[in-house]
Amino acid sequence: MSTTAPPATPDRTPDRATDERLLRTSPLRRLMGRPELGSVVGAVAVFIFFSIIADSFLQASSLSTVMYAASTLGIMAVPVALLMIGGEFDLSAGVLVTSSALISSMVSYQMTANVWAGIFVSLLVTLAVGVFNGFMLTRTKLPSFIITLGTFLMLTGLNLGFTKLISGTVSTKSIGDMEGFASAKKVFASELTLGDVTLKVTILWWFVLVALATWILLRTRFGNWIFAVGGGADAARAVGVPVNKTKIGLYMGVAFAAWVSGQHLLFSFDVVQSGEGVGNELTYIIAAVIGGCLITGGYGSAIGSAVGAFIFGMTSKGIVYAEWNPDWFKFFLGAMLLLATLLNAWVRKRAEASK
Amino acid sequence: MARARTGVRAIGALLAAVLGASLAGCSSTGGKRAEDARKAQTAAGKAAVNTPRWTFAMVTHSGDGDTFWDIVQNGAEQAAVKDNINFLYSHSDEGQQQAQLVQAAIDKKVNGLIVSLAKPDAMKDVIARAEKAGIPVITVNSGSEQSKAYGALTHIGQDETIAGEAVGDELDKRGKKKALCVLHEQGNVGHEQRCAGVKKAFGGQLQNLYVDGTNMPDVQASIEAKLQSDRSIDSVVTLGAPFADAAVQAKRTAESKAEIDTFDLNAKVATALTAGTLGFAVDQQPYLQGYQAVDLLWLYKYNADVLGGGRPVLTGPQIISQKDAAELRIYTERGTR
């Protein structure tokens, strides 16, 4: 945007003093207005809590385990957060991860091809599922909840049906001795050991995805479109935002992350169970919501989703380090979700009131 | 304000009514009192050894609220009390999550690990890491083929194929011709092995039926539909105790003549066996799996003893028919069988 207005319309020049869009806000104000602020406060609270309660929580090795747990969820939470900012859901994201791993493994094995060929085919098919979700949504005008629920059930069935049909059992055959496996493992499932700390490559993937998504949201035209379609699709369409393309793009983003997660599953364990992944889609949504995304769309951030995933990772492993009875895990998770969301709403209200 | 007060009053009245009703209507049979009387018969809790207080962690592939794993845990806790062990339990039905939980136990520097290998490939690396950290590992319940290769001391459990074959033989003994194998967890390798074992040993025909184990009414309806559509089925084998009851209900509504048999045991199954509504159950003694795992780890730490001679230690199959069931019912009610 240029700040010097064309001289032909002097009356259209925004007045710096009265136009609130051009007001200089203090850095603190700006921080208060960030969607992820509430979740950061929550994350600090959870961190301090487990540091006090669980004596082994603060070890470097424990923290790397927490980071790994957070990253496996966080990789998916990033595009799911973007999708939610765009005002839609994806309930098929959890099983799509498993599908993607199954496709890679079975294509490579059955074709006796280089593992990378399977990985590539899997990327295409996974992206196609994303396109299918977006296309069905924009064509039928049905709520995304229904569309992706259908995809979720279909994929669950396909995962099992195809695996059983092709492999004869419910899990895939080992591809650990095939060409390309070692290099693919380096990309998707390697680890860096420093002393007794093991850093998994998923943490790197996670950070890269968060940075990329943040840049898209805040610095690109597509990012503006995401906020626009989530805020009000009809209004966005009226000002020339390509709503359908944006939504299909967002679903493809989820598919891409599902592909990354799926390859990680495959190359860290070399064999994939066909029945897994069910229920994880809600975990991704929870991470995004804890991170400040609104269920109604138009508000949220990628960094928030990362913080949400980190809170989730801390809680799920912190309960183990604290030697608590795991029966109560889900209860704490639910309570935390409510608290975090309430905190978010409160912080947001304060931020808006202080503008 | 006035409305709020009437709300509070209404809730108070309701609570009083509930309390009054529960006090007035005492039951002379069953309930908590009967349970307390039974509890008096269970083993008391005091350490029987003076070894240091070691910490053992058990990480299984159980889902939330699983009856079978509850019994395993009971056994493990009982042994932990006796052996002066600080016992930790965690579980997840996702391979990746389970591996992370094992890693968390390693981070805690526990003195021993007990792991179930339903998803062996997911556990391979993390078990190697445990051994590198000098933590002895015992595998339980599933993974008898991989246990030794992964470097575990011992495997305690039931070989699913052998258990399936035992069921197949028993069906032959009872003169059955057409059986139905009900799998309640799609994607579970052990379940597939059980049904394959039945098929291998059984002289008659065997069909697999997949049902959604998290949805009991659906399980019942599926079995019902199958029994209605194929009248020649003369035996139904369920793979878990809770599903036997659903199969019995389905048999009743479908007016089928099929005999219901099941893997595993619980109080209801024991009662049904005594009553004759179930043919037989095949038990793998989950209590023993938990108890032995903790006890063998203790023996290893205390005396470097290893049981099994490099082979799995089998806790089953044990065929339980009508005559054994009466005695076992008492044990199932206290949650140890």
TrEMBL record, chain A:
Residues 1-20 are annotated as: Disordered. The chain crosses the membrane at residues 37-54, 66-84, 115-135, 142-162, 197-218, 284-312, 328-347. One of its GO terms (cellular component) is plasma membrane. Its main location: membrane. It is a multi-pass membrane protein. InterPro entries: ABC_transp_permease. The keyword Cell membrane applies. This is Xylose transport system permease protein XylH.
From TrEMBL, chain B:
The keyword DNA-binding does not apply. Residues 56-299 form the Periplasmic binding protein domain. SUPFAM superfamilies: Periplasmic binding protein-like I. It is found in: Cell envelope. Keywords: Signal. One of its GO terms (molecular function) is carbohydrate binding. Residues 1-24 form the signal peptide. GO terms for cellular component: outer membrane-bounded periplasmic space. InterPro entries: Bact_Solute-Bind_Prot2 (IPR050555), Peripla_BP_I (IPR028082), SBP_2_dom (IPR025997). It holds the Pfam family Peripla_BP_4. Belongs to the bacterial solute-binding protein 2 family. This is Sugar ABC transporter substrate-binding protein. It comes from Streptomyces lunaelactis. The lineage of its organism: Bacteria, Bacillati, Actinomycetota, Actinomycetes, Kitasatosporales.
